[in-house]
TrEMBL record:
Transmembrane segments annotated in the record for this chain: 9-31, 250-273
Domain named EAL: residues: 705-960
Domain called GGDEF: residue spans: 561-694
PAC domain span: 477-529
Entry keyword set: Membrane, Transmembrane, Transmembrane helix
SUPFAM superfamilies for the chain: EAL domain-like, Nucleotide cyclase, PYP-like sensor domain (PAS domain)
PROSITE patterns recorded: EAL (PS50883), GGDEF (PS50887), PAC (PS50113)
Swiss-Prot/TrEMBL cofactor(s): Mg(2+)
Gene3D superfamilies: 3.30.70.270, EAL domain, PAS domain
Protein name: Diguanylate cyclase (GGDEF) domain-containing protein
GO molecular function, one term: catalytic activity
Listed InterPro entries: Biofilm_reg_signaling, EAL_dom, EAL_sf, GGDEF_dom, Nucleotide_cyclase, PAS-assoc_C, PAS-like_dom_sf, Rev_trsase/Diguanyl_cyclase
Length: 960
């Protein structure tokens, strides 16, 4: 290469680079200056919008708190529930709160609500019931003045506390305090407007050290902007905003890209110049290499739609017996037709289109070419194509003979569906598998043999036993292994091993046939799972639980394990099921099951053994550790709220606990003991646990209960009960008519009466309250029929019905038939049902009431206000009387809240056209207060003691 040509190669690209670089640097500097001006304008506008958003958000939350306190109900019997519902609604509508709490007049936190989306907090739920640790709050939040203070939690997260007294005229209502997450406010205020590359710093002007904003402006920011002071929730703030120096700028990017493009253009020009000068030398080297090749090489050039031969090496002349030049005048397609290889024309088009080489073995029968078999390779060479040919006649004939000898065997083996043949060493290593494996695992046979440890999910644990059997000439039973398919799916394969022996009888390999049994195995697993698990919750069912408990008892008796069992019965589940339907009940059970599952680990057990009954077994934990878990579980259940169709339900769990350590106990005995303990937990107030302790006192108590239960059963059969009568007095009318309530007493073996507080819970526990109800109804009607004079003087007589009777259709028919057969006027009969049983069995209660009211009977709703009182339910129940629960009546002259509760129930009941009856009238002062309130009837020791119904009848006959 000449010296002048070398200078041209280097100097021409350098000059081009200098011109292009100057142009791009100038353009980049101009664009960078324009970007700075646009960014400053955007920052100024953003600062104004963020301040406006903060003030708007503050105004909305201030107005929301004002509205909450202005709408505070003064007559709400349970203001905590009202506050909880209002707070949840408010926090779900407006974001930015970290908590909303209710504080009483002495500064004690009564309730706290936190939003679900809040990850940062200043207070958590443990502050409920404690004094608020803000000394200045009670002083500054009096009257209509709001208390405002900035605080930080232990993570340095800032909150604004804001609140005041609910009503200056009613200081006993307390205070409402909100904590706002300032970091969230700032994020909401700027995140709704622009992208988040700006830095924000919110500073309280009175506390310059109290700042909010994780992206605070720094020294490397551009044109920081500070707003005027503005007011948010009683405090003055300033907002600083800046944009960081960008990691890259448009102008700088243009400059860099331009320089890179200039450099690339220079390099390309340099390469082109250098390539042009080296082309001749390259062609010379190529010519030399092609002539030295062992394969025939032919180069075809495209002209129009055809390819024509332009180059051929020496081997090509030898292959075509010196006549290759005769092919130059013919296009490639015609040459291929000459050799009867027309199908290659389409392959050439694919090579040109896809740039992928074409390889094939072809058979040639022509006098123009010596070989019978050729290996052909066609590749693209720019716009041309290159074809190489190799004589493979001898090798191909040998391979064809070998393939034919194996073809029959392979067709048989590879045609097996979901089966494959294998050979493995005595060390269980596969050396051959047929192609049937690919249809199962999607893995080529060679790959599986080379990487079998990758696909074997498990190693057979009885390989040595089977190998010993094979050596002795036996064929062991088939076994199953799990293999991992290429897709990640697990396949279950059944193997049947057979030994391969040499001439001396020595075992040298193992072969056999395997089949895919994944579907059969999955079906067996599914059947097994469904037989032992509850379909709704996925937990273990009663059958599997009994089996598990029996095995566990055996381990405990052998000293191999220790365990504690908990029997759980859901409280108020039936209320959800009856009022909202079975789908809602099913959803509640699944959610509760998930809640229980949080308190068990892989060593423990959770099972559903009945409709709303669950069992937990805690392994290798002491009773104290289990009780600590149950304390936390009950707290979670108490805080849990079930929402359906905008209704919120509170549920609970009564838990019976038993330590599984007594030898000789069966699974049935343990479940019965835990069930009894669960019932005791219910009788103690629900949502609690009771630990079964097999002490002498407990055993004695169980024996007493068992004795009472036996006596109770005999009393049902032998009329061992006695009817008592307690008068109900008309408080507004001096002309008294005989009316009262029928009470039941059980006569003991000694002739003394057994308290209903003893035998009634036992009857409820054993599900026989409907039999008691029938005995009372039947014997009351018989008594009235036999004592017609007493019946004529009677205005009404009240008969109690239990919750189980409300759901008993058969018993309802018996009661209706007995009333129709008797000559007792139906208007004299009044049936009492408790509020709790009516609400829990709402649908059944309505149907039961409607049936008996159609006969002329009247109804009273007993114990109203003590349980799940709801005037919505009251409006849907066709009752004539409301019996106000005695817990409110007993102390009403000494307790203002009880007095107002009785007054409210009476006003609402009478506005609905229903008469009221006050229970537990204990003295004359209470009677006078009830008369003053306008209560219609009263019942209690101050008005008349219970006495045998027979005595009451005799007294009236003597008076008359």
């Amino acid at each position: 290469m000449s010296q002048q040509a070398q200078k041209r190669i280097y100097f021409t690209p350098i000059i081009l680079f200098g011109l292009l670089a100057t142009f791009f640097i100038s353009v980049g500097a101009y664009l960078q200056e324009q970007e700075r001006a646009v960014e400053r304008n955007k920052a100024e506008n953003l600062s104004v919008q963020v301040v406006a958003n903060l003030q708007t958000m503050a105004s909305e939350r201030h107005q929301a708190m004002e509205s909450l306190m202005q709408n505070w109900p003064t007559q709400e019997p349970n203001y905590l529930d009202w506050f909880n519902v209002q707070a949840i609604t408010l926090l779900s509508i407006q974001r930015g709160y970290s908590s909303l709490m209710l504080v009483d007049q002495q500064g004690v936190v009564k309730w706290l609500v936190r939003p679900q989306y809040s990850s940062e907090q200043y207070w958590d739920n443990h502050i409920v019931g404690q004094s608020l640790s803000l000394p200045g709050f009670l002083y500054h939040a009096n009257g209509e003045q709001y208390f405002s203070q900035l605080v930080s939690n232990d993570k340095g997260h800032h909150f604004l506390l804001y609140g005041r007294m609910i009503s200056p005229q009613e200081p006993h209502l307390g205070y409402v305090m909100a904590s706002f997450d300032l970091q969230a406010w700032l994020a909401m205020s700027n995140g709704q407007i622009v992208e988040q590359h700006y830095h924000f710093l919110l500073t309280d002007t009175s506390l310059n050290t109290m700042t909010v904003g994780t992206n605070a402006p720094s020294e490397d920011t551009l044109f920081p902007i500070q707003s005027e002071a503005f007011n948010v929730l009683g405090r003055e703030w300033r907002l600083q905003l800046a944009t960081p120096e960008p990691a890259y700028r448009g102008g700088l990017l243009v400059t860099l890209v331009g320089l890179v493009m200039s450099l690339l253009a220079t390099i390309v020009l340099f390469k082109l110049l250098k390539s042009a000068m080296n082309l001749d030398q390259s062609q010379l080297r190529y010519k030399t290499a092609s002539e030295a090749a062992l394969d025939a090489l032919l180069i075809y050039k495209q002209e129009g739609n055809e390819y024509y031969l332009v180059e051929a090496n020496k081997i090509a002349n030898q292959l075509f017996q010196g006549d290759v030049c005769l092919l130059k005048d013919k296009p490639l397609s015609e040459q291929l037709r000459t050799f009867k290889q027309d199908h290659i024309v389409a392959r050439i088009a694919e090579v040109v289109d896809t740039d992928a080489p074409f390889d094939d073995y072809i058979e040639v029968k022509s006098r123009l070419i010596k070989p019978q078999w050729l290996k052909v390779q066609i590749v693209r060479a720019g716009r041309d194509i290159a074809i190489t040919l190799r004589d493979v006649t001898e090798r191909f004939n040998a391979q064809q003979a070998l393939l034919k000898s194996e073809e029959k065997y392979r067709r048989l083996i590879d045609g097996l569906y979901r089966h494959f043949v294998y050979t493995k060493t005595l060390e269980q290593s596969f050396v051959y598998v047929s192609n049937g494996l690919y249809s199962i695992l999607g893995v080529p046979a060679d790959t599986f043999c080379a990487q079998q440890s990758r696909y074997l999910s498990e190693v057979p644990n009885d390989a040595s036993t089977r190998l010993k059997a094979i050596k002795s000439g036996e064929n062991p039973a088939p076994y199953r292994l799990k293999l991992r398919a290429d897709s990640g799916e697990t396949k279950v394969i059944e193997f049947a091993d057979t030994g391969v022996f040499d001439e001396r009888g020595k075992l040298i390999a193992i072969e056999g046939i395997a089949r895919d049994v994944t579907e059969e195995f999955a079906l067996q697993e599914e059947v097994t799972y469904q037989a032992s698990h509850d379909q709704l919750t996925g937990l273990m069912n009663r059958y599997a639980f009994d089996h598990y408990l029996t095995k566990l008892i055996g381990k405990v008796n052998a000293g191999e394990a220790s365990a504690v069992m908990c029997f759980i019965d859901m409280d108020r589940f039936k209320l959800v099921n009856d009022s909202c339907g079975h789908p809602a009940g099913d959803r509640l059970l699944k959610e509760v099951a998930n809640l229980f599952a949080e308190f068990v680990n892989e060593n423990d057990l959770l099972a559903r053994i009945g409709g709303d009954e669950f069992c937990m077994i805690f392994r290798n934990l002491t009773l104290e550790q289990v009780l600590d878990k149950l304390d936390r579980l009950l707290q979670h259940i108490a805080a849990y709220r079930f929402t359906v169709d905008e209704k919120v339900f509170f549920v609970g769990a009564s838990i019976g606990v038993i330590d599984i350590q007594q030898p000789g106990c069966s699974a049935a005995d343990l479940i019965k003991a835990a069930d009894n303990a669960c019932y005791k937990a219910k009788s103690m107030g629900r949502n609690r646990y009771f630990v079964y302790t097999p002490t002498e006192e407990q055993q004695a108590l169980d024996q007493v209960e068992s004795k009472v239960l036996q006596h109770f059963q005999m009393a049902l059969e032998n009329n061992g009960f006695e009817l008592f009568f307690q008068p109900i007095i008309d408080l507004q009318n001096n002309k008294q008519r005989t009316q009262g309530e029928v009470l039941l007493r059980l006569i003991g073996e000694d002739g003394q009466h057994i308290s209903p507080g003893v035998f009634i819970p036992l009857a409820e526990q054993h599900g026989v309250m409907n039999k008691i109800d029938w005995w009372v109804v039947d014997n009351t009607l018989r008594f009235l029929q036999q004592n017609t004079a007493f019946c004529r003087q009677l205005d009404k007589i009240a008969i109690n019905l239990s919750g189980i009777t409300l759901s008993d259709e058969t018993l309802l028919k018996q009661i209706v038939q007995q009333i129709q057969r008797s000559n007792v006027p139906t208007e004299k009969l009044c049936f009492e049902i408790t509020e709790t049983s009516a609400v829990t069995n709402l649908t059944s209660a309505k149907w039961f009431i409607d049936e008996l009211r159609a006969l002329g009977c009247r109804f009273a709703l007993d114990d109203f206000g003590a349980g799940m009182s709801s005037f919505t339910y009251l409006k849907n129940l066709a009752v004539d009387y409301i019996k106000i629960d005695g817990s409110f009546v007993r102390n009403m002259v000494r307790d203002k809240i009880d007095y107002e509760t009785v007054k409210a129930i009476n006003n609402i009941a009478q506005s609905m056209g229903k008469q009221t009856i006050a229970e537990f009238v204990v003295d004359d002062a209470t009677r006078e207060a009830l008369v003053e309130l306008g209560i219609d009837y009263g019942q209690g020791y101050a008005l008349g003691y219970p006495e045998p119904l027979v005595n009451r009848c005799k007294t009236l006959q003597l008076v008359s």
